[in-house]
Amino acid sequence: MTRDEYREAFDAIERKWQSRWDTDRAFEAPRIPTGDHFYCLEMLPYPSGRLHMGHVRNYSIGDAVARFQKMRGREVLHPMGWDSFGLPAENAAIKHGTPPAKWTNENIAAMGAQLKRLGLSYDWTREIAAHRPDYYRWNQWFFLKMFERGLAYRSRRWVNWCGSCQTVLANEQVENGRCWRCASVVGRTELDQWFLKITAYASELDAELDTMTGWPERVRVMQRNWIGKSEGAQVRFAIVDDASRATGADLEIFTTRLDTIFGATFCVVAPRHPVLAGIPAGAEARARLDAFLRRIDARDVTRSGMEPEEKEGIDTGLRVRNPYNGEILAVWTANFVLMEYGTGAIMAVPAHDERDFEFAHKYGLPVRTVVEAARPLPTKGGATIEDGVLVASGPYDGLDSAAARTAMLRDGEGKGFARPIVRYRLLDWGISRQRYWGTPIPIIYCERHGAVPVPESDLPVVLPEDIPLTGQGGSPLAQVKSFVETTCPVCGGPGRRETDTMDTFVDSSWYFFRYCDPRNARAPFDPGVVGAWVPIDLYVGGITHATLHLIYCRFFAKVLRDLGLVSFDEPVKNLLCQGMVLKGGTAMSKSKGNVVEPDDMVSRYGADTTRLFTLFAAPPEKDLEWNEKGVEGCFRFLERVWRLLIPRASDLARVPPPGEEDGAGDARHARLRRRVHQTIDRVTGDIERRLHLNTPVAALMELLNETQDFCRDASDADRPYLKEAGLTLALLLQPFAPHISEELWTSLGGQGSAVRQAWPTASPRWLQEEQVEIPVQVNGRLRARLLVAPSISETEALSRAQEDARVSAHLQGRAIRKTIYLPGKLLNIVVG
Ligand SMILES: [Zn+2]
Ligand SMILES: [Zn+2]
Measured in angstroms, how far is the CA atom of residue 448 from the centroid of ligand 2? Predict the structure, then answer.
């Protein structure tokens, strides 16, 4: 067969088996599993219009595991759907005038066809799409449930604002001060926003990371940092007047370094700190402060919790007293202290904090060292930030930092001006977006009743289709009179609907529950069904979601648990973050011109080859370098499988496979059988225990080589062994190249489809190494013959010989001077 003929043959079998799986409904999962089960999930794609290689890799990994688990006898749930709300649909509408719904539905159809062409084992009867009312009505329902419990609330806040996307961004969506989506510099603005109270679960979200051993360590570290737990103290500084008398007002500061409080030389409050409101209008300090606030507001402020490029501040004129040493300190305000964290106020200790040092240096403020060490401590930007021993700290001199923190906190608590406190960097999740293509927030505003939730029976609040989109101004829904104008559910008077939509990360926070019960019209899902399938056994997706989606979905699971809908704490047992697909060392992108199109690959090589390459070229969690030669190599491997076995298949189909003991008497037969069973053992262990998918492919390539060698001088007596090798290869290929696996299985006389067969098990009989007899000599005279594996080491051979009575009799009381060992052939022990 020519190369083109192979290509056509592959194409034909791919179509054939895809339609067979369809008619057989091979991948439909039961509503409730009755036995051992496995929920295999890949992150659902945004329907941008076409798959990229990153998708192909993600789904090939999930598919390999799903098929393997199915053959291991588990009932497998392996669904797919669409994260179909979001900005690109809206932008396409603005640019081309296509309604977002039309654009989205067309993209889903196109990408669905691409997925089907790859032969992925999805249960398509469970397909969901976030933009359909039967899905997003449950976003609204969850919102109402959270609203009832105070977990969804409205608040006027300074928010991150992307001027180019015309929308608010969550902190998680600001990367290095820029919009995660369009990379514009993010600004700040004040808006009424809806928030989900994720901070209510901060402590649990943090603590449980310790037990989540099925998650990659780096993801857990990223989440831990994101949640940002810190244990410290809250200390009350009295505000004093010009004569240093207490005014009765206080400033509360939060610190994790109470041991350095004698080194505090000033305090800093956030520009929006309420204490500043106390500065009277007309005062000179007021005018200077207002000018400063205008200046920093005009500038692009970076994300909360991130350092502004230039630290700026002014002395507010306020003065406070340090309760530990009575010292009077100036209160500054500066752009690097944020209201959202801690108390919005800090004590500045320039000697022991890098940021404070930089600020003190800029404005010529005093620096006082209060922590020292026997050896010089490393410094960072001029500050000594490590723990040490206290100096210039009154009664605490000589204590080490940790002991000082304990003692100072105890004393401060005793005197009533300090208390221990745990803080988190995590902020509540702002979900309001001034965009059209998202879930409407189910709230109606009434003049008399304020923000009133839409009654459950009125859900869904349907997103109107076909509305004018300009990309200008605020929420597009605000322009749609028929949507906005409604009646108040409480009084029946005029009401106005909320016109912001939900952050699309709400959609993806619970979709995997919906897959379990996707057509439920009365509830988001039946708790009994979800309880039977979830937690997810394996979740595959990109590391880019480590802090966004993967924290939100944990939060949702906890809320759902507290609503009594699920009974577990964590939704995902094992997480695999696959590496990127690179070409020429960088991520594929249109601008770099290094994009490899999945459709193009499938057309040129077939789905099996494309999938096989993405699995073989790198371990799942490592980056994969796209390499045409490697793809070619995978194609040739499948071509060789075909050439070796398909022409012999009808002949082999009539031969029974060998019995357990058959072949032992013939070295060639025994050797092939050992290789077959060793390969089963290796492939099984690599997938099941280590989730390695590249090494099994290598093992299959070796088995093919071995089988090919075996065929070189084949006779009729060889046929059962060749058949065993062929059937094994067919089944072991199923997770990696499922179409050729099916074709091979059927051609060799296998019954039913390969994916429905039991995964082969290695026979212990054939896992044993072949044994050979080696003569053992003592000083050149034959004393015994030992039966050993040919690969046995010299040390092992000698110890086996010493255990043998016939040999040990001649070693009694004599020192071994040396041994001569020819592996698998001879052992000679020379004694003195
Ligand atoms: Zn943007
Ligand atoms: Zn009302």
Answer: 5
CA of 268 to the centre of ligand 1 (A): 32
- Taking all residues of the chain, what is their mean pLDDT, rounded to a whole number? 93
Give the closest residue to 347 by CA, choosing from 226, 242, 232, 427: 232
| 637-662: average pLDDT | 96
Q: Are strands 178-179 and 187-196 parallel, antiparallel or unpaired?
A: unpaired
Say which ligand is closest to the CA of 185.
1
Q: Is the dihedral of CA 224, 228, 229, 232 positive or negative?
A: positive
pLDDT by residue (tens digit) across 481-504?
999 999 999 999 999 999 999 999
Question: How far, in Å, from the CA of 493 to the mean position of ligand 2?
Answer: 6
Residues 36-45 have a mean pLDDT of: 98
**What token pair was written down for 129?**
């799409």
Helix (H) or strand (E) holding 362: helix 354-363
Q: Are the C-beta atoms of 224 and 215 separated by less than 8 Å?
A: no
410-445 per-position pLDDT tens digit: 999 999 999 999 999 899 999 999 889 999 999 999
Residue 647, pLDDT score: 95
The whole-angstrom separation of Cα 321 and Cα 330 is 9
What is residue 303's predicted lDDT score, i.e. its pLDDT?
38
Starting from the CA of residue 449, give the closest ligand: 2
Ligand 1 centre to CA of 431 (Å) is 16
For ligand 1, the distance from its centroid to the CA atom of residue 184, given in whole angstroms, is: 6
% of the chain with per-residue pLDDT over 90:
77
Q: Which two tokens stand for residue 773?
A: 């007899």
CA separation for the pair 802, 776 (Å, rounded): 10
pTM for this prediction: 0.86
Ligand of minimum distance to the alpha carbon of 165: 1
Q: How far is the C-alpha of 333 from the C-alpha of 346, rounded, in Å?
A: 10
Give the model's confidence band at 213: pLDDT under 50 very low, under 70 low, under 90 confident, else very high: very high
Alpha-carbon dihedral of residues 280, 286, 289, 294, nearest 10 degrees?
100
Give the separation between CA 38 and CA 67, rounded to whole angstroms: 11
Say how far apart CA 305 and CA 226 lie, in whole Å: 10
| Ligand 1 centroid to residue 308 C-alpha, Å | 19
458 CA → ligand 2 middle, Å:
16
The pLDDT, as a whole number, for residue 373 is 75
What are the tokens at 755? 């994916």
* Protein residues within 5 Å, CB atom, of ion ligand 1: 162, 164-165, 179, 181-182, 184
Helix (H) or strand (E) holding 530: helix 527-533
Q: What is the mean pLDDT of residues 591-600?
A: 93
Give the Å distance between the CA of 56 and the centre of ligand 1: 27
CA of 441 to the centre of ligand 1 (A): 21
Task: Provide the sign of the torsion angle of the four alpha carbons 625, 631, 633, 634, taken in this order.
Answer: positive
pLDDT of residue 306: 46
Identify the nearest ligand to the CA of 494 by its number: 2
Q: How far, in Å, is the centroid of ligand 2 from the Cα of 451?
A: 9
**Close Cβ partners of 19 (under 8 Å, ≥ 6 residues apart):** none
Do the beta carbons of residue 788 and residue 797 sit within 8 Å? yes
Ligand in nearest proximity to the CA of 184:
1
Contact 308, 358 (CB under 8 A): no
Measure 546 CA to ligand 1 centroid, in angstroms: 20
Using the structure block, give the residue that is written with the tokens 């060490």.
373
Which ligand ends up closest to the CA of 186? 1
Q: Which ligand is nearest to the CA of 182?
A: 1
Give the ligand whose atoms come closest to the C-alpha of residue 450: 2
- Confidence check: pLDDT of 300 > 50: no
The pair of three-digit structure tokens given for residue 144, joined into one six-digit string: 């109402």
Q: Give dist(CA 376, CA 409) in Å, integer.
A: 27
Cα distances from 764 to residues 227, 232, 656, 666, 767, in angstroms, run: 49, 59, 21, 18, 5
Query: What spacing in Å lies between the alpha carbon of 165 and ligand 1's midpoint?
Result: 4
Q: Which ligand is nearest to the CA of 187?
A: 1
